Amino acid sequence: MASSGNGNVANGNGTARNGLPAIHTHKKHVNGICHDDSGPTVKAKTIDELHSLQKKKSAPTTPVTGSQTPFATLSEQERQKQQLQSISASLASLTRETGPKVVKGDPAKKSESQVHHDHHHHHHHVATPTIAVSDSALKFTHVLYNLSPAELYEQAIKYEKGSFITSTGALATLSGAKTGRSPRDKRIVKDDVTENELWWGKGSPNIEMDEHTFMVNRERAVDYLNSLDKVFVNDQFLNWDPENKIKVRIVSARAYHSLFMHNMCIRPTPEELENFGTPDFTIYNAGQFPCNRYTHYMTSSTSIDLNLARREMVILGTQYAGEMKKGLFSVMHYLMPKRQILSLHSGCNMGRDGDVALFFGLSGTGKTTLSTDHNRFLIGDDEHCWSDKGVSNIEGGCYAKCIDLCQEKEPDIWNAIRFGTVLENVVFDEHSREVDYSDKSVTENTRASYPIEYIPNAKLPCVGPHPKNVILLACDAFGVLPPVSKLNLAQTMYHFISGYTALVAGTEDGIKEPTATFSACFGAAFIMLHPTKYAAMLAEKMEKHGATGWLVNTGWSGGRYGYGSRIKLPYTRKIIDAIHSGSLLNAEYKKTEIFGFEIPTEVEGVPSEILDPINTVSSFPSTLLTLFFFYLLPMPLNLTICFDLCILQWSDKKAYNETLLKLAGLFKKNFETFTNHKIGKDNKLTEEILAAGPVF
């Protein structure tokens, strides 16, 4: 064998040693070295240099001018220095009065960069300015500041066990032992101001703690976060109304939490971020670290603490991301009414003619599903403000329940689950990574968090005119409320304050099946002031702007939970469509007994017999009907009819009436909590509201 002279091993006649023609390549000799120039080469001499060429520095998309920002004259280094000083101040220990040494960037990448620098002296690495203001800390805390979804994906998959990319590109993650909110572990500092302003006592969700205990928990959270090599910091906004925007800072230890809040809060532009300054409210999420059970007011290893005077929130002992979202919602329920703005636990959408509808309801009532309508513009799915100018979304994203999600019933939510979306506690195929939305192995409270712009018909910015319809959604577990009722103003207030629904499985820890419950303002767990204060504001705005109130039952018909059947979603959608179009206002109505509801006799696309619950009562025993059809009709027709009979009809009128009276009694008993609070200057509205309740 000898070299062929063309870079191939060949014999003398130009063939390769296997008898095939030799492969010829172009070559040239430079300084005695043979180079293959058949293709262009990269401008790098090492793998590290090649990797450094792969990414380029981000630049603001909006030009910064002197008229736009007071920081325009600052250098990039000075601007970053001020930003880091602000973050260090947020992480300051109150006992030491100083913050940690902070530096931007991933510590793992810093190490790689240092190794690269040591081995290649000619490469100049530009270091990010560092702030060292603590005399007690001997380490740097690396700040991963407002990372992009792609960067957060990398962090989660590399460092957080249980993080995977699903077949549609979403990030599947686990929230640990807690898969729902822990309302019994939520505390609010009671001081001289909040003692008089907030709703305390019977029926209130607000559980008190003192300032000292809050500071103990804050110190514990801050010490934990400062002990880490890196923390994630999000600077974002709440409320799309530019005049009432709130600046929030979230400090967390998990990429999952950072991406979740990236989706749920309003994302700042690069220019807004450069001029963010001091936040109006700060969250310290140390959820991986428990609270001290021996600390006063603590009842478990979990504690979610709000201090309205300090405008801070501390999370210990739970990694469920929904605590951050709802904690900030509670803050808005306190701050916005001070500005004469009504904060609402509602979905909101707008028709092409500008007609706005509000959807009130607790988790599981269909608020997200019904407000996400591909025929209308989505303003938001969960949290809103109603000011003198109209409505505005508080958030920048949606948080949808995923259990039993299917493309046919909820196409917009299904299609929103893609790259950038966080999927909480879902189960997926280990090979294909396809999610099984019916699998409840981890929890029934599976969730998807995604930016609102993932909904094709989202209205951006998320603001709209004054609402035309106010829809109260109830998931009636007793099966006696009509699918739809038109309410007068007093009835709207009564049912708004009552907030009746069924607590759907998985929404909170310990709930395994739907349970009848009352939640004031359809969100008692989040409100700060007495419910009558929010009700008075809602009544004033509805009356001023001519809005109509509706009660829509998305729960059971033909029997209580376990016996009846849940009202089909297509029927509920037809009812909602009739409300939006205005056709339901022109329908013929009749009045029900006990509750005094005005119910339509006909709605296009909805079986008339289910519009009045009494019509779902069987004329003679359903057992006999079932046996009759089972034995006389052929299979499988007999099974189909028998199944419909069993789930769509009450067994008899007596059982229906007893259940109706039972529910009415529960309404009256619940409302006793609110009868001593006056609404309005002359208390006239209070009397009207009380008269609007069930009569029996």
Automatic annotation (TrEMBL):
Superkingdom of the source species: Eukaryota
One GO MF term attached to the UniProt entry: ATP binding
Pathway(s) per entry = Carbohydrate biosynthesis; gluconeogenesis
Q: Which PROSITE patterns did the record assign?
A: PEPCK_ATP
Q: Which GO terms describe its biological process?
A: gluconeogenesis
* Any one annotated GO CC term: cytosol
Q: Where in the cell is it found?
A: Cytoplasm
- What are the alphabetically sorted keywords of the record? ATP-binding, Cytoplasm, Decarboxylase, Gluconeogenesis, Lyase, Nucleotide-binding
Instruction: Report biased composition (Basic and acidic residues) as residue ranges.
Output: 103-116
Q: Basic residues composition bias: which ranges? A: 117-126
Renumbered to this chain, region (Disordered) spans 1-20, 91-128
Matching entries from Pfam families are given as: PEPCK_ATP (PF01293)
Write down the chemical reaction(s) this protein catalyses.
Answer: oxaloacetate + ATP = phosphoenolpyruvate + ADP + CO2
Assigned EC number: 4.1.1.49
Q: What class of enzyme is it?
A: lyase
Q: What spans are recorded as compositionally biased (Low complexity)?
A: 1-19
User: What is the designated name of this protein?
Assistant: phosphoenolpyruvate carboxykinase (ATP)
The species this protein was found in = Arachis duranensis (Wild peanut)
- Lineage of the species this protein comes from: Eukaryota, Viridiplantae, Streptophyta, Embryophyta, Tracheophyta
Query: Which gene specifies this protein's sequence?
Result: LOC107487214
